[in-house]
């Protein structure tokens, strides 16, 4: 079986230690977390949604999903991978902006529909959101100017279905 | 009714129907012990080491088929329980561990005897809690018991800060536990089960493989009925011993690394395996691609993570073993009784083949000469005791010989640390089992190495008047590791030669127990008789053949059909 990227949307109790249980499950069983984002849900403050990206084959993902389900604080685990879903990631990217590159950077920012949120004498900080492909394309275009640093949230995702099943 | 936190704790434990707890006092639990002093109807057994408290609670739970409880203090008291908790977790034993904690205001300050036990035990408990609000205390304790005993059971730890135990509130009954995220599946899918009925009718070479889940769900009667009704032979994992009577003609013996030849060959050649409450541990399967490679595997387990974890099940059924077997049996009962036994000729051929495996390669030892063979001691112990006897073991050769030569007839009578393999388990476990079943004879089979890992619990047995009989097979080696060194490491006995041991007879004497010893084969039976009949706690030490190995043996990672036989 071949390895691929899986996106799991996990609804959990918003309590201390829950993230640690999940992270511990991954490290203890030798699974890797490629991306992770967590926040309280707006619809219910007692719950948090974790969006996790992990890599493995079908067999490993089946185990991960079942093991996650087994945790008392996990309410639902939704494997989005083969479903219709929207996915976004937020990135802040600080890039060298020498006078000769400024116009070019702004053109790229414009094309990617993102925006400059901070300007210095020799740098721009740009905010962008999108899916992973868009992020990578954007980074590749800015790389020649010299990327100073980036911060990324990791993916967040929701299914396109209207109804959400809570077990 | 106004109650202190400590009083709420004791009330909630008693409300669960628990009559005995195992514990050790300390600063952080002093309020609980203060409340225990005035408590009736709840016996507290003072152990001599917190590890012993958890093993005793574990064995209490197993012998009685209920939940075991341990109570210890914060910091070192809590960390000392970790081995016991991990063992209970691996064997899915319902134990609730209450640990003291420093007052809530001090948590995180590196206070005296503070440790993050919830963090430490997260990977080896089914669930755990830190109670920071006294209004949630009763509910949390109730949840802890509910989680420990339901579904696939396991240990649950509750960390109790000192100020919460000392505070007082108006007590309110917590009501029923309803956890929206925790609903174990007890009832199997009937459609899947009707497939199993067809599989049983068509099977030419079927085998039932029974595990610890059958003990936990109290399904051994149903399992035995299934086997007898369908004329299917039965094997078991270490944890499943006793779920099918060891004297029955359909019994194959244990499967796996030290399983019988006929059990391993049956698994390797079967065309249908009904696996009930097993998790296909590596000590059972050996090389996985050769394990039951010709078989359709039906796997019944309450825990979905046990399915497809190690072995691909053709027909997985999530459900409680007892419920599932009851339904399966009733489905089979409505069939023609001769059809469910398969084709008569085919089945007879299969049973004849098994009989032949048994005849050509039986599990055996030879007691010749004066030097005692350890298997002979277990053999005699089995002959001299009845099926009501509870046997606990330490870990290593003593454990395997007990599994092989004490032919268990009933569930809940063989108590061993199966998954984690904890040396030092047997003695505190024997004490826990005796507390659960005071009318039963309890024997701990030990090695000279492992008995030393928790021998301080002799004092507990004496003080609590819980007499247990300890059989030490003394070969002055860490025998199982030595065996591996002999077979796979050119006899380089690196640090396994334990020629220095205490005088176990004097050790017994020092604690106020009775000690006796022999090194002669012709005295084994007489000494066992004398020791078992003796009142109080007894150590019976047998100086045995030093380099005896446990056979048959499947080398680690090998196919279970490829065994070293003698």
Please describe what this structure looks like.
The complex is a heterodimer of chains A (167) and B (566). Chain A has 4 helices and 9 strands, in the order βαββαββαββαββ. With 167 residues, chain A is an alpha+beta fold. In chain A, strands 5, 6, 7, 8 and 9 form a 5-stranded antiparallel beta sheet that branches. Chain A is elongated and about 55 Å long. Chain A starts with a strand and ends in an 8-residue tail after the last strand. With 566 residues, chain B is α/β, with parallel strands linked by helices. In chain B, the strands form 4 sheets. A 6-stranded parallel beta sheet of chain B has the order 3-2-4-5-7-6, sandwiched between helices. A 6-stranded parallel beta sheet of chain B has the order 11-10-9-12-13-14, with helices on both faces. In chain B, helix 1 packs parallel to helix 7. Chain B is globular, with a radius of gyration of 24 Å. The N and C termini of chain B lie far apart (68 Å). At the A-B interface, helix 1 and helix 2 of A face loops of B.
Overall spatial form of chain B: globular
Termini separation of chain B comes to 68 Å
Order of helices and strands of chain A: EHEEHEEHEEHEE
Structural class of chain B: alpha/beta
The outline of chain A comes out as: elongated
- Low confidence ranges of chain A: none
Instruction: Please estimate the helix content of chain A.
Output: 25-40%
Cα radius of gyration of chain B in angstroms: 24 Å
Query: Order of strands across the biggest sheet of chain B?
Result: 3-2-4-5-7-6
For the biggest sheet of chain B, the summary is: 6 strands, parallel
Tags for this model:
heterodimer; A: 167 residues; alpha+beta; 5-stranded antiparallel sheet; 4-stranded antiparallel sheet; 4 helices; 9 strands; elongated; B: 566 residues; alpha/beta; 6-stranded parallel sheet; 22 helices
């Amino acid at each position: 079986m071949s390895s691929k990227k899986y996106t799991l949307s996990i609804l959990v109790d918003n309590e201390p230690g829950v993230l640690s249980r999940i992270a511990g499950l991954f490290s203890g069983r030798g699974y890797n977390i490629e991306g992770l984002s967590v926040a309280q849900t707006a619809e219910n403050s007692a719950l948090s949604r974790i969006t996790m990206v992990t890599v493995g084959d079908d067999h490993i993902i089946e185990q991960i999903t079942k093991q996650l389900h087994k945790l008392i604080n996990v309410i639902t685990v939704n494997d989005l991978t083969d479903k219709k879903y929207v996915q976004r990631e937020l990135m802040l990217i600080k890039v060298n902006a020498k006078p000769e590159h400024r116009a070019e950077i702004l053109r790229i920012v414009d094309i990617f529909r993102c925006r400059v949120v901070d300007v210095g004498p020799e740098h721009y900080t740009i905010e962008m959101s999108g899916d992973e492909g868009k992020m990578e394309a954007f980074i590749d275009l800015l790389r020649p100017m010299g990327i100073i640093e980036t911060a990324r949230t990791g993916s967040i995702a929701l299914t396109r279905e209207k109804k959400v099943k809570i077990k | 009714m106004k109650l202190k936190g400590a009083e709420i704790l004791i009330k909630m434990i008693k409300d669960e129907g628990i009559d005995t707890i195992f514990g050790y006092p300390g600063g952080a639990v002093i309020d609980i012990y203060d409340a225990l002093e005035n408590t009736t109807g709840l016996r507290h057994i003072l152990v001599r080491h917190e590890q012993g408290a958890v093993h005793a609670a574990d064995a209490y739970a197993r012998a009685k088929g209920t939940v075991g409880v341990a109570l210890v203090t914060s910091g070192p008291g809590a960390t000392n329980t970790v081995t016991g908790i991990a063992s209970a977790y691996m064997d899915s034993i319902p134990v609730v561990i209450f640990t003291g904690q420093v007052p809530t205001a001090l948590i995180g300050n590196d206070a005296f005897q503070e440790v993050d036990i919830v963090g430490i035990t997260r990977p080896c408990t089914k669930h755990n809690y830190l109670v920071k609000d006294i209004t949630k205390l009763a509910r949390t304790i109730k949840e802890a018991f509910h989680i420990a005993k339901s579904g696939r059971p396991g240990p649950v730890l509750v960390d109790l800060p000192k100020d919460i135990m000392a505070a007082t509130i108006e007590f309110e009954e917590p009501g029923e536990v309803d956890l929206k995220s925790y609903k174990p599946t007890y009832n199997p899918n009937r459609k899947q089960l009707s497939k199993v009925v067809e599989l049983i009718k068509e099977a030419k070479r079927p085998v039932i493989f029974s595990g610890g889940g059958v003990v936990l769900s109290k399904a051994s009667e149903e399992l035995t009925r299934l086997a007898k009704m369908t004329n299917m032979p039965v094997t078991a994992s270490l944890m499943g011993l006793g779920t099918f009577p060891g004297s029955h003609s359909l019994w194959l013996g244990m499967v796996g690394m030290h399983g019988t030849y006929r059990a391993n060959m049956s698994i390797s050649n079967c065309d249908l395996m009904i696996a009930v409450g097993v998790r296909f541990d590596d000590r059972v399967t050996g090389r996985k691609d050769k394990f039951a490679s010709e078989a359709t595997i039906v796997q019944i387990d309450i825990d979905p993570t046990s399915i497809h974890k190690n072995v691909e099940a053709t027909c997985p059924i999530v459900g409680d073993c007892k419920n599932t077997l009851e339904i399966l049996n009733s489905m089979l009962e409505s069939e023609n009784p001769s059809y469910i036994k398969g084709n008569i000729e085919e089945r007879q051929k299969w049973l004849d083949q098994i009989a032949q495996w048994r005849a050509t390669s039986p599990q055996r030892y030879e007691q010749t000469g004066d030097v005692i063979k350890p298997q002979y001691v277990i053999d005699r112990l089995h002959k001299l005791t009845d099926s009501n006897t509870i046997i606990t073991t330490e870990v290593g050769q003593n454990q395997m010989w007990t599994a092989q030569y004490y032919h268990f007839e009933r569930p809940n009578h063989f108590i061993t640390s199966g998954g984690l393999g904890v040396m030092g388990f047997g003695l505190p476990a024997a004490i826990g089992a005796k507390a659960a079943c005071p009318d039963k004879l309890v024997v701990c089979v030990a090695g000279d190495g492992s008995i030393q890992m928790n021998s301080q619990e002799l004092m507990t047995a004496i003080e609590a008047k819980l007499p247990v009989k300890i059989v030490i097979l003394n070969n002055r080696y860490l025998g199982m590791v030595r065996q591996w060194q002999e077979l796979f490491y050119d006899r380089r006995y690196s640090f396994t030669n334990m020629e220095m041991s205490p005088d176990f007879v004097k050790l017994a004497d020092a604690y106020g127990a009775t000690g006796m010893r022999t090194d002669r084969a012709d005295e084994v039976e007489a000494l066992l008789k004398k020791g078992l009949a003796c009142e109080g706690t007894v150590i019976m030490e047998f100086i045995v053949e030093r380099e005896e190995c446990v056979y048959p043996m499947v080398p680690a990672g090998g196919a279970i059909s490829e065994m070293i036989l003698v």
